[in-house]
Structures are given as structure tokens and as C-alpha cells.
Amino acid sequence: MSTKTEKDFQLKEQIINASSAGLIGISCVYPLNLMKITLQSKPVTIDKERTYKKLLVSNNVYNFLSTWKKSHFRFNCGREIFQRHGLRGLYNGFTVNAFFITPEKTIKLVVNDYLCAKLQKKNEPLSLYQRMLAGAGAGTCQLIVTVPMELLIIRKVTTTGSGVNIEITSAWHHAMETIRQKSFLGLYKGAVATWNRDVFFSVIYFPLFAYLNNRGRSLETDKAPFYHTLMSGICAGAVSGYLATPFDVIKTRIQSGDPQFKNAYNGVIDCAKKIYLNEHPKTFMNTAVLRAMVIAPMFGILQMVFYIGIGKAVLRTDEPKS
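== Mitochondrial carrier protein ==
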């Protein structure tokens, strides 16, 4: 088999693996992602009460322990959405995410692997700086898909997921309306904020996953056990997602389509400044735990699928028998 064929075969494997992992992962955690978007998009009001209650009922350790003891720990935001719109409401915008998740994850993973291969010198292991650089490149390249995808999801959630008796309109409607008003570039509103978040996340995630996964490699097989790879993906995703939350909050606010806050922010710095001055510094980490709960299983599943090798199994099945 030629070198070109081998590369093509590996690329096909990555596409299938990324597609499978993305669809499985987003199907499992999408309701949590919708809750995160809803909570992030609603600023603190003048009396410091949120439109939706926080993830936890309590605001300090004592009340949290008391709440836990009384079995009142609950996801109020998700419960309210479910009561208003049913199960369909918890998956509002899912089709957009499912459609774009394949190219997004494929670009992210393929670009990172490609840059790692280009930066690596023969038999020398990649340095931390090289892995961070590859991650930054992957986070940058995925923007072409990530920005319009998240913009459409946020518009659907903020305009239909938080009100009573509001029709759940299609993502196509939001896309056409945006293009009609602001041309095709309107779909890339919040690109700078998204770039900040994705680059920051990828610069942490890829080196951290590589480090954790390498710690479990066997000297005999030069491969980490399945459970170690899975946990490495979960841990790296949780840490990276948690730390990138402030950037995610800013991105969500800028892309929000809620008429009440339309054109309220003039860029990343202006948005950060207004949140800090008009609300509370804690707002930046408001959904950090919830975001970690969304990201961790997503990337755990991603690494699990790559470990199993679904892409290789599918391609071998499709090969004609001699």
C-alpha cells in the first residue's frame, strides 16, 4: 500500500471516529449543554436574582449541605424548561449540533494530529510547547464550523427555550434571518470570543490528555489500557472545560439573540467589563461545574471511540473480499 493510500485510510478512520464520538457524546449531554447556554445567556438582574435559579439551590457550603441532606439538590433550569416545553425543549437546537458536530470534531482532531506530526522531530517526543502550539492551531481551524453552529444553537435556545408558549422555530429560519439582515458574515458573530475560548481550551486539553494518557502506557504494548485512556479524556476535558468557562460565558453573551440584550456588547473586552461592573465577578464562573459536566463525557467518549477503533472496523468491513 502506498504512503498516500495509508494517509487517506487513516484520515477516513479519523473522520468516522470523530463523527461517531461526536454524535454519541452530544446525544448524551445535550440537555446539560442547553441548560448551560440558558444560564449563561441570562444576566443578573438589578436585585441580583437570576432569571433561572443556579445549578445548585444554595449559594454557600452550609446551605448546600443542608440542601443535600433534605434531598433538594436539583437542576432547576432543566426542570423549568421540561415543564414548559417537554422533552423536545431539552433538545432544542440538537439537530444543528448533530449536523455540525462531525466536521467540527474532525477538523479539531485531524489538524491537531497533523500539526503534531509536522512539529515532531524524528524520534524525539513532542515538547509541551509543541503540543500547545498544535492545540492552538486545531482550535483556530475549527472556528469555520464552530462559530455558526453555536450561534444558531444559542439563538434557538435564547429565543425559544426560556419563554412560555413560544414556538420552537427552526435553525434554518434563524440562519436565513441572520443572512438577510447582516449577510453571510452575520453567522460569524462572536468569532473572536469563540477563538479565545477554543484556543485556550485546546492549548490546555491536548497537552494534558497526552500527559495523562502517557502515564498509563505499558512498556510491552506501548499503549495505555482502555479505562486509563477513557479517564484521561474525562479528566483533561473536565479541567479544560472548567478553566475556559469565563471565555465561554463572554462568547454566549455576545452571540445571544435575546431581544432584551441585542447589541448590548461591543466586543470581548466591552462584554467582560460590563459583566464585571454590572453583575458580579462570580458570573464568569457561574456555569463552570455544569460546563465541565458537559465537556468531560464528550471527550471521554471521544477517546473511547478512538481506542476501540470504530473507523478501522467499519472500513475493513467495507473492503471488497479478494
